[in-house]
């Protein structure tokens, strides 16, 4: 790790992952995967959760189909996975410890975005449910021209929409696939979680167990506001009763990416 690359630096923009980083919804994905695998008569491998963490749900469905010995059932198992997840996530997710304070602090200093492998409507629902959506100018998810993590596209596109170069932006991630995406895009990276792999620790600039890490919070509070920090765009008021995402629903997420392109400030 190279923590000095974080603590001696002020990012021009910050891009957060959602599942497991901001919102405690990673457990819902794990539960949904287990349910679908059991329905197909597959005993869940203890290491499967780590291998599938951070994967796009379509890739996870393909992995599950191979594990079940039914590679031709990829689409079926993907649909089942997403349906089970939507049922579980509708039970009102909660913010990860420290997320509210860190996001609020950083939003006063730099523009923020979310880059996620989840469907757009699920990300929007989760962020609104925990009162964080209004802090983020953009939500970037895989779509035409934006390939899923671990490819760098979501972070390249988030930086482009925020109007900064990838090298001047910070990513906050909890999964190895997300970390690989951010590093591949050229962002500096803070990893978060209690039991990181050696590979993950080696890739990030700083690892913290939780977003309320005292060093991280002190650093955030002492950052000067960037030139690009203007009054945040409210892309929809946060609701006390956000709409539960429905299977098959879609949300518009803005302009399409030019895959592989880099943002210019």
Q: Main β-sheet: number of strands, strand sense, barrel status?
A: 6 strands, parallel
> Mean pLDDT, rounded to whole units?
86
The number of domains is: 2
Poorly predicted parts:
230-241, 247-265
| Oligomeric form | single chain
Tell me the strand order in the biggest sheet: 3-2-1-4-5-6
The CATH class of the largest domain is identified as Alpha Beta
- As a whole number of angstroms, the C-alpha radius of gyration is 18 Å
Query: What would you call the structural class?
Result: alpha/beta
SSE succession: HEHHHHHEHEHEHEHEH
CATH superfamily of the largest domain: HAD superfamily/HAD-like
CATH architecture of the largest domain: 3-Layer(aba) Sandwich
Distance, first to last CA: 27 Å
- What is the helix tally? 11
> How many beta-strand elements?
6
At a glance:
The chain has 265 residues and is α/β, with parallel strands linked by helices.
Secondary-structure blueprint of this entry?
Elements: H1 4-7, E1 13-16, H2 26-39, H3 48-52, H4 57-67, H5 74-89, H6 99-107, E2 112-115, H7 120-129, E3 138-140, H8 153-162, E4 169-173, H9 176-185, E5 188-192, H10 198-203, E6 206-208, H11 214-221
Parallel strand pairs: 1-2, 1-4, 2-3, 4-5, 5-6
């Amino acid at each position: 790790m190279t923590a000095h690359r974080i603590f001696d630096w002020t990012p021009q923009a910050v891009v957060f992952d959602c599942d497991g980083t901001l919102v405690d919804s990673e457990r819902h994905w794990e539960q949904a995967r287990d349910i679908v695998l059991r329905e197909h008569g597959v005993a869940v491998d203890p290491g499967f959760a780590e291998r599938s963490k951070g994967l796009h749900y379509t890739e996870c469905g393909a992995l599950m189909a191979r594990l079940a010995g039914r590679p031709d059932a990829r689409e079926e198992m993907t649909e089942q996975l997403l349906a089970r997840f939507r049922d579980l996530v509708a039970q009102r997710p909660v913010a990860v410890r420290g997320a509210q304070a860190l996001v609020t602090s950083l939003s006063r200093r730099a523009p923020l975005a979310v880059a996620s492998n989840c469907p757009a409507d699920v990300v929007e629902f989760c962020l609104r449910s925990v009162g964080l959506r209004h802090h983020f100018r953009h939500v970037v998810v895989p779509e035409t021209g934006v390939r899923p993590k671990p490819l760098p596209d979501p972070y390249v596109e988030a930086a482009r929409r925020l109007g900064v170069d990838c090298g001047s932006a910070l990513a906050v991630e909890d999964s190895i696939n997300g970390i690989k995406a951010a590093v591949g895009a050229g962002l500096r990276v803070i990893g978060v979680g209690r039991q990181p792999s050696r590979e993950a620790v080696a890739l990030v600039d700083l690892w913290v167990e939780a977003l309320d890490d005292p060093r991280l919070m002190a650093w955030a509070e002492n950052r000067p506001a960037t030139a690009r920090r203007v009054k945040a765009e409210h892309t929809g008021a946060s609701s006390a009763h956000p709409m539960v995402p429905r299977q098959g629903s879609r949300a518009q997420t803005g302009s399409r990416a030019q895959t592989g392109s880099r943002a210019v400030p």
